[in-house]
Design brief:
This protein has 14 helices and 15 strands. By secondary structure, the protein is α/β, with parallel strands linked by helices.
Length: 479
């Protein structure tokens, strides 16, 4: 039987509505779990139990009166710290901003609370969410519950670790180069990068077409549940598009779909265990009735990295420099390196050069996906990252030295192809004892298809009952 702290959101809602479980009971189990094991993984910046418990009691009263009309009523949600809560700290991991308070709720927080969700904990990030690992001078190192030697990834690493450890059934995340999909991959959870404009962000960087806020969960259905709540037009974000029909993942709808399998996305040096697990997912989809055909793409990690950092050089990099002016000595080394790389890329390339590179990549992807309903590929070429590393000198990827750690991850092309929905789902276990994941990439704004395919993978290769073993939380050993 599933332990209460690992109960999925959809099941919990059903139990609430049948009066078989109280939102207070679920929350109390999560509080106990957090108090028991968070010391070993450090996934949270703060807990909000004093506000969450009264909210859970109110939700229980509403269920008792038959007033369960909001989609998340009584469900605990862990919020990424960058998603501000009015009156609470909004530091984004910066020591110099540790006392800064949010003036208002972030749009996704506003929607979660309106839907009855209860924010009971906030999750760690690297500084300004700009790294592929999750550690900072302010909060320390966040570790992967599956093996504490390794990172849960970044920048939504706290959310991924919290879900994997049983701290919440749902969590918020964000993604500008893979910051949702990488933590999902490394923690055995599900992460969704929505098409740009689907989910509202916070001005002014809501206008950055690489970025997007979104959901993480332990199941495909729960991820869709939270995505449905988050999505739709918002007056504070001019880029948001018209509301879409709610997503309802159905594995039965996969039969006959055509899926392009691309292992390397060009020349990414994919590790053997990552490749084997990706092919296992492709075989599962074939068994579910999909037609899977392997393709190649003409991309290189070097060109993708150049394109990405040119973009960062004109938007995120300058914004980070504004945020950190005067506090440079207090910054993590990876933050200083990121800003320097972005600055150098802007000096070497004009903004229009970046746009030309972006549209070339987008066109190549569209051509490769012609005749297919979706594309399947790994989320990361490397199966793991050390928890406390900075990777300032690059990374060894399957015996090949790469000059920048982002060149080891296969997520950024789909921030460049920013209207494509991408769902990251577990694909298996790496040789080092932590999960691996795949990306399911859809055509622009075809969110439903990636969720149907994700549900089929989940049905064929169930992962919901696989969790980190309790002894791992006592030290830094793996399974």
């Amino acid at each position: 039987m599933t332990e209460l702290h690992y109960l999925d959101a959809s099941t919990a809602l059903g139990l609430f509505r049948r009066r078989e479980l109280s939102p207070v009971e679920l929350l109390q189990s999560l509080i106990h779990r957090i108090e028991e094991v968070n010391g070993g993984i450090n996934a949270l910046t703060e807990t909000l139990f004093e506000d969450a418990l009264p909210a859970a009691k109110k939700a229980a009263v509403r269920y008792a009166r038959g007033r369960d009309v909001t989609p998340l009523l009584g469900l605990p949600v862990a919020a990424k710290e960058k998603h501000g809560l009015q009156g609470r700290t909004l530091s984004q991991g910066l020591v110099a901003r540790r006392d800064t308070l949010a003036a208002a709720n972030h749009p996704v927080i506003e929607r979660i609370q309106r839907a009855g969700g209860i924010i009971h904990a906030r999750t760690t990030t690297p500084e300004l969410s700009c790294a592929t690992v999750t550690h900072s001078p302010l909060w320390g190192v966040t570790r992967n519950p599956w093996n504490q030697r390794f990172s849960p990834g970044g920048s939504s690493g706290g959310s991924g670790a919290a879900l994997a450890a049983g701290f919440a059934p749902l969590a918020t995340a964000s993604d500008i180069a893979g910051s949702t999909r990488l933590p999902a991959s490394f923690t055995g959870t599900v992460g969704y990068k929505a098409p740009y404009g689907r989910i509202p962000g916070l001005a002014p960087l809501s206008a950055d077409h690489y970025r997007g806020d979104g959901p993480m969960a332990r199941t495909v259905a729960d991820t869709a549940l939270l995505a449905n709540v988050m999505s739709g037009r918002h007056p504070g974000d001019h880029t948001t598009v018209a509301d879409a029909a709610p997503m309802a993942p159905d594995p039965a709808l996969v039969a006959g779909l055509r899926v392009a399998l691309c292992i390397r996305l060009g020349n990414y040096p994919v590790a053997p265990d990552v490749e084997a697990n990706t092919r296992r997912v492709a075989e599962a989809l074939t068994a579910a009735g999909a037609v899977v055909e392997e393709i190649v793409l003409p991309w290189t990690v070097e060109e993708i990295s150049r394109t990405m950092f040119t973009h960062f050089g004109y938007l995120l990099g300058p914004a980070m420099e504004d945020e950190t002016a005067g506090s440079e000595p207090q910054l993590a080394a990876y933050t200083r390196r990121f800003m320097a790389d972005a600055r150098a890329a802007a000096e070497a390339n004009r903004y229009v050069d970046g746009l030309r590179a972006e549209t070339l990549l987008q066109g190549q992807l569209a051509e490769a996906m012609t005749g297919f309903d979706a594309l399947l590929c790994p989320a990361s070429a490397v199966p793991a990252l050390d928890a406390d590393a900075h990777y300032l000198d690059g990374i060894d990827a399957n015996g090949q030295y790469l000059g920048h750690y982002w060149q080891a991850h296969m997520t950024a092309p789909f921030n460049i192809a920013n209207r494509c929905p991408v769902l990251a789902v577990p694909s298996g276990m790496a040789d080092c004892g932590i999960p691996t994941g795949v990306q399911i990439v859809g055509h622009p704004f075809d969110d439903a298809t990636v969720f149907h395919l994700g549900a089929a993978v989940e049905s064929a290769l169930p992962w919901a009952d696989r969790h980190p073993m309790a002894p791992e939380f006592a030290g830094h050993a793996g399974i």
